[in-house]
Hints:
The chain is α+β, with helices and mostly antiparallel strands. The chain contains 9 helices and 12 strands.
Amino acid sequence: MARVKKAKPMQAQEKLTFLLSLVPFLIERERVSVTEVADHFRVDPEQIREAVRLIAVSGVPGETNTYQYEDLFDIAWDDFEENDQIVLTNQVAIDDSPRFSAREASALIAGLQYLSSLPENADRDAVASLMTKLSRGASASPSPLAVERTESDETLALIRQSVAAGVQLEFDYLGARGERERRRVDPLRVESMDADWYLRGWDHLRSAVRTFRLDRISHPSVSTEPISHRASDVALPDTLFESSADDLVVTVDVLNSAAALLADYIPDGAAREQLEGRVRTTVRVSHYHGLKRLMASMPGVATVVEPAEARRVVAEWAAAGAARYDEAPR
Length: 330
């Protein structure tokens, strides 16, 4: 009969190092078998059982400098002795670190759910794992929630498919001046500004990099044509929007503290005149509709100065919006 080789006993320093690794491992997994832990640490299962029994009488003394129940680790003993399963039912010391509140964890989980839809976040298992850790590590159970899907989410999903397959994306696009064209694009990057999402890609119709707002994309589909440009092959400008000869040039006054919010719209070399607490400069926009959206995002901090047509358009649009509040039933 073959003789089973007995595991070499651990030295004190080795045992301490082992326990410092074992406790976080058990906390991370909530429920785990003795065999699985032994396989992970490559030790004899009986060593794991001995270590668990030692953990169960370990802890940190409280304010009285005596060990009370809540100052010690504890395990589900019935599960341990009858099923060889390890479940920590009381944790100490490690739990003293600051934790997210339930509301904070919920907000972070919602953000991760939203970001997981972006094509560059291909490793969704890692995102899911992080959400699980946030739920488990919060001071209380986070509120159940889900991020509502939009039409842009469907487009993001197709962009992800296009990137993963290395093929071009086709869609109808409503341009800044109201024209609709069929575009064929190599997706390069998805970015956001305020509440809007944009796709930056190599446009085969224009033979150049172009920026597309996702809510203006319709009837998207993944083609079978391989992409010819990748993000590493193309020099993407730092700013989201590139100026065009057809852009509208508008003079605005903006609070000094908010001027940075217009950085993507201010052309290089634009004059800046310092006023009392404000700066007067110019911005370039594709059309007046874009100007209205820009001003709506900066209420009370930015004002259109000229041309007169731009002031009129923005003023009429603001007045129409205010009138709708007056007409609303009270």
